[in-house]
Each structure stands twice: as C-alpha cells, then as structure tokens.
Design goal:
homodimer; 344 residues; alpha+beta; 6-stranded mixed β-sheet; 37% helix; globular
Amino acid sequence: MRLSELGEFGLIDRIAKSAGATGARVICGIGDDCAVIESGAAGTALLVTTDLLIEGIHFRRETTAPRLLGRKILAANLSDVAAMGGAPHAFTVSLAAPRDLPVEWVEAVYEGIGERAAEAAACLVGGDTAASPGPIAISVTLLGECPTEEVIYRRGARPGDAIFVTGSPGESAAGLALLAAESAGNLDTAALSPEARADFDHLRSRHLDPEPRLHAGRALAARRRATALIDLSDGVAADLAHVLTRSDVGARLQAERLPLSGALCRACEHLALDPIDLALGGGEDYELLFSAGADLDEKVLSHALGLAVTRIGVITDRAGELLVLDPSGRERPLRQPGFEHFRP
Amino acid sequence: MRLSELGEFGLIDRIAKSAGATGARVICGIGDDCAVIESGAAGTALLVTTDLLIEGIHFRRETTAPRLLGRKILAANLSDVAAMGGAPHAFTVSLAAPRDLPVEWVEAVYEGIGERAAEAAACLVGGDTAASPGPIAISVTLLGECPTEEVIYRRGARPGDAIFVTGSPGESAAGLALLAAESAGNLDTAALSPEARADFDHLRSRHLDPEPRLHAGRALAARRRATALIDLSDGVAADLAHVLTRSDVGARLQAERLPLSGALCRACEHLALDPIDLALGGGEDYELLFSAGADLDEKVLSHALGLAVTRIGVITDRAGELLVLDPSGRERPLRQPGFEHFRP
C-alpha cells in the first residue's frame, strides 16, 4: 500500500497504535495540538509540539520573504501551545538546505524566528543543520508549559456546550487568494482605491504574518471554563471536526453567526468568492475555536481574552455529525474539506 | 555568500550569535550535545536534542533496512542524552515523504524507532507528517532529564585531566567500509572464513545498529568525576576537538593507547586500511569520550560504567591544539577531518 491510499490521518492512526505513548508520565500523546507530559514540577505540565516544513509544499522561496517565513513558522508552533492554554518556553530549529543557498536567506529566516520568539518570550536553544540536494526542510519543536489542571484538550466538548471562535476566520485564506490573483496578473493593486488597498494590506498580513493567540489561550485556560480548545490551522469546519472526533460529539453551526470581517467580505466580492466558504474551509488563521458552557457571554469572554469572541454554534450528541445551517435553517454543504497530506 | 562558503559550523555560530538563547531558564543553549533547561522541578534539568535526517545524505533507501534505520535514528538522539549524563524521557518524530512511498516502509521505520524507545524507556508523544516530492526527511526531537548538578558539559575539561573513551571506536567505520566493499563487489562474504564472517557481522552491526551508552553516561554523571563528556558521532579527533574548543584547552593523544578491537584490526588488514585512522576519523560509533581527574583508574571506571574504558591521552593548556603521538613520540598527522555539512 502507498501513503496516498492511507492518507495522513490513516498514517497517524497506525503510528499512534503501533508506537504511541504509554509512559506513566505521558498525560496526552498523539492526537492534540501538543503532547502533554508531567514535567516533574508539581502541578505543571510540559507541552511539546513540532512541525516539519518542506519548500514547495508549505512555502515557496520565490513568493515568501524569508523573514516573514521565519515569523510564520514559529507562529504556527506558538499557536499550538496557545491551543492547549499554555505559555511557550524554548524551541529548536533544524534546517536542511542546498549548499548554494545564500546565507542571507537563512539568516533572514532565523531573524524572523528570533523576532517572533522575543515577542513570545521563547528561547532558541538548539537545532541541527545539514546539507541536502533540496527542497529546503525546516523543522521546529517548541516546548511550553501550563498548570496541569488548566490544560484544555480537544476531547472535552459536551452536548449543549456553545461553540466560540476568536477574531475573524477566513481572512488568511482571503489574503492568500488576493496574493494569488496579484501574482497571476488578475489583480492590479496600483488601481485599487485607498480603502481596498488597506483591506488588501490587512488580509495579506493576516496570511503572511499571523498572530498566535497566546494571551487569549492562557486567559481561557486560567478561567477554566472552556471544555475543548483547538487552533484554526485548516479552517473552522476541519478543525471543529477534530474536536468532534476526539470528544465523540457533533455540532451545529449557524453560518450567519460566523464573524466575517468587512475586509473579508469586500475582498470576496472583488474575487467572486463566498466569505463563508473561506471562514469554514480556509486555513492558517491561527484563531482559537473552543467549546464552553452555553451560559458564557460573548462580551465577557471578549474582554477576558482581549479579542473579539463570537458564539457560532452548539455541540450536539450526534457523534461525528457537523451541520452548518443557513439562516433559513437549511443545511449548507461543506465545499472545502480540510487539507490532508499524502492524498492525491 | 553561499552556505558552502560559510560551512556548517560557521552557520551555527551565526545563528547562535543572532538568535541564541538568553532566557533566564536556559542553562546551556546551542553548542553541546543537548540544550539544558531548568525543568521547573527543583534540582532537575530538562535536556533537549534534535536531528534532521535527509534521504541520500544521512541514509539511502536502497541499502538501509527501514527497521534498522528507525533504530539508528533514535539511537543517535539517545546517545546525545547519554553524552550529558541524562536519562531519555519522551520524543517526537516528523516525516516528510513522497505519496507513492510504501506504507510498509514507513511502518518498519516506526517499528525500529519503537523498539529502541522501549529499550530506553522513552515514549513517542507526537510528531508531524507531510507529503513531499522527496527526498524523505525525518526529524526527531528527544527530551531527557538529569539532576542539574550532575549534567556533564563539553566545556569543563582542565589541563592535566586524563582523556578516556568507552568501547572500541573505529568499528562503525570499519563496518561501513566492509558494507561498501561488499556492495561494490570487492568483498565476497561467501568466501570468508567463519572467523572473518563473525568479524564482519559484528562490525556491520556496530555500524547499522549502534548502541547508545545510556547506562554508562548516567553512571558517569552520578559519580560526578568527569569534567567534560561528548559522544563519538564524528570520530575521536573531531569530537575531542569540540571538547577542546568549548573548554579552551588542548590535548595530547597516544595512538598506541587507542582501544582497537581485534575485529577492527583484522578487517582493516583485509581492506588495507589503518585502524588508527578509523578510530580517530571514523564516525557513528556512539561511544563516550570524557575527561576526568588523572587519578581515576580504568578498571574501576570500566566496572562502574559496565563498559571497557580506556585512557587515551591527556588534556593540555595549549588551547585548541590536538596532538596525536605515535609510540616513538612523533606527531601523527590527522588524515580524516570530521565531516562538516555544506562544505563542497
């Protein structure tokens, strides 16, 4: 059998079953945003997350400024720590690259990583470097920590819980679509109105330099009211589906409740895209999605997290069923399934 | 400037200077076998080490059995933890691979990793998977721990200390040379005597399935007598040079004191190689090399570490100078410098 037949999630299932953690000190192994391990310090858990990025798959050297690439690589890992309610701590970066790669490119990537690290109070403590024929491969492993009792997993959502999301999902996908239209010659940014240009700048920045929601994740964990938490790397639908699977529940979303920003809606009009499709199916927003008691108030939550928080639906007892309803109550088909590696 | 002009160690220097750890909880960042971080548990340090392996550079699919590859990948990381005096704990494995790779190959790699992990009581807790056009990339990050006061660094060697090595360095390189001769058709293993075949099997296994010296590393740390410690991944000369640089000292080795095994010497005779060259310059032995007070006895150490320990030289105050003397006291040139990535 080939990897393409098994798919990414099939492979992860097999790995987890054959070699998954069973150690006495492993609180949560494969299957959440971070692994959670007893740190040895009473009441504190160690969080571990890792990403392996390949040129041509996760980024393109021609279209990605190396400093922003560095910022985004670390941001994605910081977002995984935020998605457990933790605080980042230390990380390693490994790089395999061709011999003829300009040193300046590599240094700019590390500069971007260093900027993001300083903003998040995380320290680069080590790594590995190797020559390779290419493509460039970059691996980051980030450690964080969280009071053990405050860690929020994907697995705790209960029927009747409300589903909340931070910020404005879909903006990153809109930024990517604008960049693609520009590079294909279908968008003349010089001809845009000042307002449209401001939208474009905002959405592009949301795609190229996303902000990990570390403060919000910690604040949510410290309040101990969220029952499940995940970050949005693959879109609301695909990431919520991970929560549903791990929690053995279902969900009903109201499409009209999705917090679509003005910039997103205006860009979608320009591009003839549906902003709800982008919010449900677009990746790399790095917002937080969580379930919590239905009595929680959006405004109180927004104040506590320092970010707009919107209630977008409810957890149901129909395990695995994710329904998105339009304002008339009709079911809306999900057009963009989450990305899965290895699938053709 | 290209990476090939700067070289691996030049690049690491630049990264360490621009983005290196300065966090209050980082005890030792870039520049040793593991990073050492305050774990939060009183008196216990967290160890972190990571490797990024690329098909065609670090391994070849055609000549490496995937189960042994998995065992060796984890063994190299376990050896880094041994080289700080620590015990392994938890690790992540990331894989980027082409869609048409057989699932069975991937599963065998993870099976080998799982075997080594079970032998070392380490747990696989997470990772990342991605499709890639190739070559295959595998990244491992291993966490370990050690009583903070017992951690042994590369930087503590003092003039007058004796230099010790475990086991029989050079055997892995001899195994590699035998495998290369066999695959080039220059070695007819079927025609070997039973004794020569036993040598071949032993040396090949030393290359393909090296044993990380975890027990010896922990025993050495617990005794608190070693002043500096490193594992042999690039040969006695190159790895000792790292200790000299970090400790700001020199060393004098006696070539005739190198513990050359009978199997190594016989294979070298067969292959017309110098076993001392292999011990000094051959990689991937994963033995331990350490400095300690000159009053320490080889036999007492061997008993304590559960491994043959041999005194091979002395630390001098001539910073950066590494002399290898032959029995007549003449200096022996170093023929095989350690491997450095990115160099042409």
